[in-house]
Every structure is written in structure tokens, then in C-alpha cells.
What does this fold into?
Amino acid sequence: MTYLEFERPLADLEGKAEELRALARKGEGVDLEKEATALDRKAADLLRDLYKNLDPWRKTLVARHPDRPHCKDYIDALFSEWTPLAGDRAFGDDHAVMGGLARFHDQPVVVIGHEKGNDTKSRIHRNFGMARPEGYRKAIRLMDMADRFGLPVITLIDTPGAYPGKGAEERGQSEAIARATEKCLQIGVPLVSVIVGEGGSGGAVALATADRVAMLEHSIYSVISPEGCASILWKDADKMREAAEALRLTAQDLKRLGVIDRIITEPVGGAQRDGPDAVAEVGREIAAMLDEVRDTKPADLIRSRREKYLAMGSRGLAA
It folds into this structure.
């Protein structure tokens, strides 16, 4: 288990409990198991207290936790007959974006999502979930296919942002993101999206301009990272805590602002503590969101989706 900086007291308690159990297994003390159980109770209480009122910066750290379930974990657990499709038919395949055909509750769907990887080799292969233009063009191709065959689209968002490298810019990064966002608004099939970790900048919006958008309780969704915001506003990346507060990037803030539609409860201590339970809860929410829009006519889907995003911020502009 990887502990975050604010979880150090918890790490100490759980580490001590494990040490006592190791000694008990060696027969070095009959009461050690009882002491370990008492420490477990203290650790459980501390875990609940730590996660009861996380500030925005701590939520950012949790959203980035390397042990949280990633796109591949959700696909493996929630979908059957997964058939990955690769390439944008223009330049190549981007491994930061997974996409393909699958069945969800026995219904054929198209699934698209960011994949960060779960170890050093896979993270490099996946470019840490930062897509290049060909990743967004692959998503456009898959959304076109879904629209043509009447398949609902499910997107799983987990990216720090689109890749900012020279090659990506040369191949039209901003244009690809804009086209992907436009395609989300054009397809006449249900489109639902879940922010499962980081929802960074246009790289997230390009796949999350959906009929229904949900966020895991401790995920984040923002126009820029807290560090990037701090560097621009204060010329000091160390002010990321102040930036996280100002960005209103938590699920609770975004639900209040009307940017997302629902918040998905995570296990105590975050999705990283009980991946299977978190994945199952996401599956239930995806099913509920699809049920809400399943019988809507294509023209009505397109109109309501456009109206939804055009209306965002209108109250603030009027004021």
C-alpha cells in the first residue's frame, strides 16, 4: 500500500499492527494479536477522520494515487467481449487512450478511456495517460462508428492533461482536442462519462462532453493542474494548495456549480483501498446514467447536450 503524505500517522499505526502480528505468528507473545486488533480499530477511526473532510489539495493527491483503479481495471471488471480497436488511420496508435467495442449488461457499447498504466514500464508505454493528437483522433473515429451503428458511448477519464510535447503540437494537438469535443456534441447516441481520477484540462473535456457526467468522490476535474495554475498566477509552483482551493476542482464543488451530474461514493480511504468495490459502484452509476438517456431520440440527445454545455456559466455572466 502506498501512503500519501497526509497519511503518515495512519502508516505508522498500520505498520505497528503488522509488526505485532508478525511477532505473534512467531509465538513471541499471546496478547500481541489483541494489541494489533486494538491498533486496527484506531487506524480505522483515523482513516475515517482523515477522509471525512479532505481539502482540495489532498483530494488532488488522492485522485493521483497510483493504486487507484485505472481504465483497464474498469474494462476488465465491468465489460464483456472487449475488442480493442487501434489507430487513428492517419498517423498511428496512441496507447494513452484505450478504445473499442464491448458489452455492458449484455448491451453492445463503445468504450473509450485514458489509461495511465500501473508500473514503470506500462506508465511509460501509456505516456502517463497524456494523450497525443492521434489518441483524440482515434476517439473521434470510434465515436463516429458508434453513431453509425447506434451504440452508446461510455468514456472513462483519468488524465493530467493532453501531452504538451513538440511532436504533439506539430501534429495538431489543439485541433484534435477541439474536434473530439465537437464530435461529442454531434453524435446522436447516448454518451456518458465518469471522471475516475484526474480530469485535466481540454484533454479531459475532449472525451467528457457527455449527456451525463459523474465523478468519483475523490477525483478532480479542472482547466489546469494546481501546480500549473500556481506557476502562472503566482510564479511559484509551491502555492499549489492555494491554487487547488481557487480552482474549485473537487466533485462537490463541480456538482454545486452544475458542471457534473452526480458524485459516486468511494470506499472509506479512497478507491485505492478497495478497488473492486469502487469499480462495482462505478458500474452501477454507468447503468443508471444510461437508463436516463437510453430512450431519447437522437435529435433530442444532440439538442439537449448542446444546450447543457452552452448554458454553463450563464448565471455568472448575467450577474
In short: Residues 120 and 307 are 42 Å apart (CA to CA).
